[in-house]
Amino acid sequence: MLPISYGTAIVVFCIGLYTILSKRNLFKTVIGLSLMEGGVLMLITSSGYVPGGVPALLPFAGGEPVNPLPHSFTLTAIVIGAADVALALAFIIKIHRRYGTVDIDKIRGLRG
Amino acid sequence: MNPVLAIVAPFLAAFTIPLFFVFRKKWVGTAVILFGVLSALTALFVAAGGEAVTVMGGWQPEVGIALVVDSLTTAFLILASLGFSASLSAAAETFGYGPWRFYVLFFLSWAATNGIILTGDLFNLFVFFEIFSVAAYLVVAYPPRSWQAIEAGFKYLIFGTVGALFLLIGIAYAFMATGQLNMAILARVLPRAPEATLSVVIGCLVVGLFIKSGTVPGHFWLPDAHSSAQTPVSALLSGVFVKVSLYALIRLAFLLFGSADDRVFFVLLLFGTVTLCLGHLMAFQQEDIKRLLAYSTVAQVGTIVIAIGCASSGGVTAAVYHAFNHMAAKMGLFLVSGVLAEDRASRDIAQMGGLFRHRPLFVLAFCLFAASIAGIPPLNGFMSKWFLLVAAAERGALIPAAAVVAGTVLSAAYYLRPITAFFGPAETEPPHHRPHPVTGAIVALLALLCLVLALAPYIGPLKEGLLAVGRDTVNGARYIERVLR
Amino acid sequence: MTDPISTTLTALAAVMTVPAALYGWNAARSRLYRLLPWLFLLFAWQAITAPNWLVFVVFLELSSLTLFFFVLSKDRETAFLYLYSQLAGGACLLLGTALAARGGALPAVGAVPPGLFPLFVIGLGFKAALPGLHFWLPPTHSKAPAEASALLSGYAVKMGVFGLMRLVEAPSPALMAAGVVMAALGALQAPLQRDAKRLLAYSTLSQLGFIVASVATGTEEGRKAALLLIVAHALAKGLLFLTAGSLEEAYDTRDLGRLGPAARDYPLLFGLFLVASLSLAGLPFTVGGLAKGAVKAALADHALTQAVLSAAGMGTTMALAKMASFGFLSSGQRKGTGRPRPLPPLAWLSMALFAAALVMASFAALKTAGAEVATKNVLVDSLLLIGAVILFVRLPRIFRPDRTTPDVADLLAPAGRMLTIPLSRLRRLHSGHLTFYLALFFGATLVVLYLLRP
Amino acid sequence: MSTAFFTFLAAFLVVTALTASEAQDMLSAVIALSVFGVLMAIIFVILQAPDVALTQAIINSGLVTSLFLVAYSQTQKRGDDPDREDDR
Fold first, then answer.
1. Are residues C433 and C406 part of one domain?
2. What is the DSSP letter of B121?
3. Which of B198, B347, B441, C96 is most buried, with most CB under 10 Å away?
4. What's the domain range around C320?
5. Which domain holds residue B168?
6. Angle, alpha carbons C33-C34-C40 (nearest 5°)
7. Are C278 and C362 in contact (CB under 8 A)?
8. Residues C435 and C316 in one domain
9. C242 and C289 in a common domain
């Protein structure tokens, strides 16, 4: 199960990368970032997985606990990622007001 | 003084300023000034308090979050508080106290900066980096009225998020390999991880920090952000924000990457050299004065990365010394050019004629800062470049050393363009003339700082301090011992 | 460090600066400009007496910087060319010093490890205008204010040579070849110029070739001869540049084709010119003649070098003859109107100081050298001198001042264009395409991971 | 949980990711992203991280999706209207 999980995480990360690099729509860029982040989060959570383990939540029922540190890690990363996405979307709205487009190739006033 | 106060004070400011705005609008200005003084003083007191290790919540360092003060931390805490104070004063004059949101972001980034500098925990570093970055994206785009600011902020955001992802992957891998996040413990156990894992960890962390600091493959956001932001923000970006990422690079390079024999330092030397050359060559072609300064910042980042890549105590000393010199000079350059560009209502160098008659003191300060950055002999920029050259020579890094001296010639070339423009004839009288007493005072102080820094190698305590930073930083075992006791 | 070389050069700096400062006193645009020669003197002293290469380089750079401001007051482009070339030389020297300091202590001004020798020679070559690195010299000398040209040609380039004197302790064939090429190049170019100060600039190059060839012998004798020639050349060339500057001041042109009968208008100026040029051309019993004799004696083992240098000496004579004939003696060519402007008394004073220094140097040199050495080659030297003048008179077509000759300055513009092509490529890289940036970044990430592979 | 079920979920996750990436219509892409978030939450549960799953479901599928929808609807208007509200 773990190899599948790791493999999926990497594939999802690569899909996100591909989205960022190939799509011209700003929304797609943000979606790509989300996907990449999802891949990384999956990677981290999988690392805390113990076959047959029990989540380290209170009240603890006994058995072998999984490592809770990656989970808190992931939680923080999710929140931070959401903040990044929200900020990016706010920027997109502003950009759309200025440029009248969300085409990434047309948003290149700063160059050289 | 407890190190955590250096983080708490600016956070307190960030959280109470909105309250002041809601309940006592008139007090916002006073609060901003008071909190600024408070934050700077706390950071300086923490720095002056000498070496200390505090673990939050009374846990063991393995579990709790450690805050570590050592000589490198001290140096960067001082740098950050100087830079933030200067920028805050300039911002207070430029913006007034109306835009309280700006000050919230400002103090947020200050808190995160102090956090990055103080923390001894890898994941905590990432969290602070994210707070810092989110605040930075927003202050770059502040006020979001010009299209340049928005575009620059957006590009910075996308790049910064990608960089944060790489940092996250690196930290996650390090954690997966060792089960530890405390940097001191990691420094002990990470070398035992498999070689391939180690490469991935180091690669991801280095690449992430490259983006945050503006080293070459990730430098694309930097000129946009520096040139589009408001003047105090540009000064802050160049003076402090970039340095903080370089601090993280120094810390991680010697604590975690030192074990990966010379490869990581070779990578730093290589990309530092590329950054240096590209920054100088691009600055050479700019017509916009702030963009010129921004690309010059790219080049100076390259210089500091080369200094780190020398992998010796001399190299770290040169890096820290150069970081200070660049902070003093580049903040001054941005502030002066902001004032002059406002007078001309244009950032085009060709339009800058006759400004020497108009504001002689500002232009003279510009000349001093430019000479310092370019490395004209008796000034501070030359001193740190000389330290760097000796360190590079000892490392046998000939090409980076040659690039550094070649860069000196180039930077003299491109800084002379605005300077000759200032002294040249004016086509028209400058349309604006707003007095800038506070900015003028800050510029004067920064110029004084430049001169003091030029004398630093001759002042005993300062010289000893700089050398101690190099010695302590390179000696990872000492850090580990102190944190784990 | 005190030895005959630095003592002599310290004194020479003062002797050069005082007249130059006096000459420029009235012409200075502001009080700050009056300060520049003295600053130059200060920095030059520090550089000459520097204990180690680092201090030497620093003060060399600072002295170049003062001269840069001098040139800047007259011509911006040339000033930048000068500054960049000097900074490039300083950069090479700085790099070399850093590499030599690898063991700990700063390297003393003297011989360096053999691996660093080329780097130092290139660095000093920018200062001393070795062939290929001399591109800045003709434009700078011709376009600078006269007093700055005097300092440049008389002293600033000599500081580079001073570095070479300290550096070279063993015979260096490459450096000697460079000196010979310099001497020949300068002697070929000088008589073909139409700009009076450019002519003097190329003559400077030729004389520097003599000095460098003498230094390259690596012997004590060679260094002494070079030192004598440095003094002789500095005084003579300082005076010549001031006379050329006075001509420009009086007639508003440096073009030899347009200058008038200055010998009639200013007989005294012509006299001063003759004093300087006869010494420079190597008239026996003058300091210049004695110095050239000493150089040739030091090069006794190098017959070919000696022959080329003799021929180059004839070129110098021809160049000076050209300047005398077109600048002072020709009549009726001048297209200006009215009387020439009078020269300020300070200018006369400064030139008189130079001439006096030259005469005193001649006496001193005669005294130390002794009659035997002084009379050794009188016949050959006089014959060469007279032969050159006869050649000049017999071949008027070659030396006509309306000719244009190929010049090193012609190469600067194409070289600049060549350099801009990669620059614009680099600029196009920053196209503003976010996806392109990210693609570059991910590519670089792969490179980093590849470099870090176990 | 059987490996087969997990494999199915993983494959489905990849498919939704591809849909989010490739959909021409922005609304479909956003909805696919939302589904992606829900699937991630389920996978987190299987990976013994119910706390993470909860957060993921709320933030990624709920909050982020709604933000996307708001931003998308904002950009459907004519873009060049002057910036009315001042951010000061």
1. no
2. B
3. C96
4. 4-412
5. 4-484
6. 85
7. no
8. no
9. yes
Q: Kindly report the three-state secondary structure assignment for every residue of C224-236.
A: HHHHHHHHHHHHH
State whether C417 and C396 are in the same domain: no
Interface test with C, best of B281, B405, B408 (most C CBs within 10 A): B405
Which residues have CB under 8 Å from B183's CB, separation 6+?
B120, B121, B122, B125, B251, B252, B255, B256, B483
Token pair 């708490």: residue: B8
Do C342 and C427 fall within a single domain?
no
Number of structural domains chain C divides into: 2
Same domain, C352 and C417: no
**pLDDT (tens digit, 9 = 90+) per residue, C178-235?**
999 999 999 888 888 888 888 899 999 999 999 999 998 888 888 888 999 999 999 9
Phi, psi values for residue A54, rounded to 5°: -120, 140
The helix (H) or strand (E) run that includes residue B53 is strand B52-55
- Chain B residues in contact with D88 by the CB 8 A cut-off are 98-99, 143
Residues C36 and C66 occupy one common structural domain: yes
DSSP code for B258: G
Instruction: Check if B281 contacts C (Cβ < 8 Å).
Output: yes
Q: Using only C-alpha atoms, what is the Rg of chain A?
A: 19
Select the residue from D48, D56, D74 to test the A interface by mutation, using most A Cβ atoms within 10 A: D48
Proportion of chain B in helix, strand, coil states, percent, rounded to 5: 80, 5, 15
Q: Looking at the partner chain, which of A21, A108, A110 has a beta carbon nearest the beta carbon of C439?
A: A21
Q: Express each pLDDT in C94-118 by its tens digit.
A: 999 988 887 678 888 888 888 888 8
HEC sequence for C87-148: HHHHHHHHHHHHHHHHHCCCCECCCCCHHHHHHHHHHHHHHHCCCCCCCCHHHHHHHCCHHH
Closest residue to C448, CB basis, from B206, B394, B408: B206
Same structural domain for residues C283 and C181? yes
Per-residue confidence at A60, pLDDT binned at 50, 70, 90? low
Q: Encode pLDDT of C135-148 as tens digits.
A: 888 889 888 888 88
Q: Which domains does chain A have, with CATH numbers?
A: 2-50+66-106 (1.10.287.3510)
ipTM of the prediction: 0.92
Can you name the residues that pair with C255 across neighbouring β-strands?
C195
* Number of domains, chain B: 1
Helix B195-213 vs helix B263-284: crossing angle, to nearest 10: 20
Query: pLDDT by residue (tens digit) across C10-33?
Result: 888 998 888 888 888 877 667 778
The beta-carbon neighbor of C435 closest among A21, A110, A111 is A21
Alpha-carbon distance of B388 to B405, in angstroms, equals 10
Tell me the C-alpha to C-alpha distance, in Å, between residue B412 and each of B124, B275, B318: 41, 18, 21
Which parts of chain B have pLDDT scores under 70?
259-261, 432
